[in-house]
Amino acid sequence: MILVYKMAIGCIAAFAITLILLKLLPGEKIILGHDRGRKYAQGSEVNIGKPTGVGFYFVLVFLVISAVLCFLVNPVSSDKGIFESGNVVAGLGFGLLAVLAEMVTGWLDDRSKNAWNEYIKGALDFVVSLIGAFICVHFFGTRVYIAITGTYFDLHPVLFYILAVILFVVSINATNATDGIDGLSGSLSIVSVIATFVMAYLAKSLFDDNAILLTVIFVPALLAYLVFNFNPSKMLMGDAGSRALGFFIAFFLIYCRIPLLYFIVGLPFLCDGGISIIKITVGRLTKKKIILFKSITTPLHDELRKNRKFSVKKVWLTLVTAAVIIDFIYICVSAILRMAGAV
């Protein structure tokens, strides 16, 4: 019954507080920056001058409410010390602090007069990813569940750590790259977290009270943001939002012990923003000698806008619908396999 009360309070508070903060934008002149536009991004000129970095508000709301309900109100006790290996509760707390760190790095860039050098942002993302991977290995262990079957295996800690760092870096940058169409990054993040939550339940990998609370707080906080970000948007999440969202998605997957599920829940991010990252990286490493996807404008949402002449709303509908269908099919297949196994 206590969990039900927590869920109700968390859901209502996350939506209401985020909605109020974004409606009023307290401290806007000090806290927020304004969009500078993006080079080569299709239609980005319409966003120039809009408040950006509002991820500062909804990420803080999510983190504060999560901390209160997970750790202060009837917290789950642990027989391990706060820094002791295997203390899942402490690991969750440190993980949320890492989400905060990722939000702050993006927010500082959002509010700066001139955009930060991409290598500086990349280095900061890498540092936070190193810390995040250490938290996951130390507190959660290295067991990996296959979401669709519920089977599991244990990885060597060093290999798990390396793969976790890669997952964090990829998720941060792919999520950030999708944030070029009104409502897209926030909507895909909601779909990804809900699908992760459902698969964690089906796989029986980790389905604890805190996983439930994180989901019911995360979703309404982002829904409140989307009220102001659907086309035509009034404000933008900026790097403060997109980078924190990318980090949290990766962290939540590892917390639920199903990190390989990113190939499913993160597929829309990989197809949209990931292709752009690969194209740019390969081009720079080879000094433009090898240009991948020459006939495709990246990110994919720019291809749909520029070359396929999709409206912003049609791009959003196409990519979000594709994400929902992919996750739904995967969940259904997993459920069928479990029922067949039970029989």
Shape: globular
Largest sheet: 2 strands, antiparallel
Uncertain runs are none
What is the alpha-carbon Rg in Å?
A: 20 Å
Give me the strand/helix succession. Answer: HHEEHHHEEHHHHHHHH
Mean pLDDT: 90
Strand line-up of the largest beta sheet: 1-2
Number of helices: 13
Distance between the termini: 33 Å
Number of domains: 1
Pairing-aware structural class of the strands and helices? mainly alpha
The total beta strand count reads 4
Beta-strand content bin:
under 5%
Description:
This protein has one domain. The protein contains 13 helices and 4 strands. It has helices at residues 2-24, 28-31, 55-72, 88-111, 118-140, 157-178, 184-203, 209-229, 238-255, 262-265, 267-285, 300-306, 312-342; strands at 33-34, 51-52, 143-145, 152-154. Strands 1-2 form a two-stranded antiparallel ribbon. Helix 1 (2-24) runs parallel beside helix 8 (209-229) and helix 6 (157-178) runs antiparallel to helix 9. The two termini are 33 Å apart.
